[in-house]
Design a protein that fits this description.
5 helices, mainly alpha
C-alpha cells in the first residue's frame, strides 16, 4: 500500500517538534515515585538531592541539546516516556551513550 506524501511530511514534523528542545518533565513527581519505589532499600536519596540532580542534568542538556542528532533525541525521549517516571539524568545518559556508540 503506497504511503501518501502528506503523511510522510506530517510524520517527520512530529519527530522534529519533539526533538526541537529539551522536554519538560515533572521532576517532583518522578523523584517522589523513585523514593517510594526504593523505600526499604539501603541505597536512599532524599527528594531534595534527586531534584537537584535532575535540575543540573536539565541545565546541562540545555547547552548540549543542539549537538545531539534528532533521531537520537526522539528515541531517547520516547524511552523516557516508558514507565511514567521520566528523568533528565536518564535522558542525558541515553543521549551520551548513543553519541559514544557512533
Amino acid at each position: 500500500m503506497p504511503i501518501s506524501f502528506s503523511i510522510i511530511i506530517l510524520s517527520s514534523q512530529l519527530v522534529l517538534a519533539v526533538a526541537d528542545g529539551v522536554p519538560k518533565f515533572d521532576i517532583n513527581r518522578s523523584c517522589k515515585l523513585d523514593r517510594v519505589a526504593t523505600a526499604g532499600l539501603t541505597v536512599g536519596q532524599s527528594s531534595k538531592s534527586c531534584i537537584s540532580d535532575e535540575q543540573s542534568a536539565r541545565q546541562q542538556l540545555g547547552g548540549q541539546w543542539p549537538k545531539f542528532p534528532a533521531p537520537s533525541k526522539a528515541r531517547c525521549i520516547e524511552e523516557e516516556g516508558i514507565g511514567g517516571t521520566p528523568s533528565y539524568v536518564s535522558l542525558q545518559t541515553c543521549l551520551q551513550l548513543d553519541q559514544w556508540a557512533r
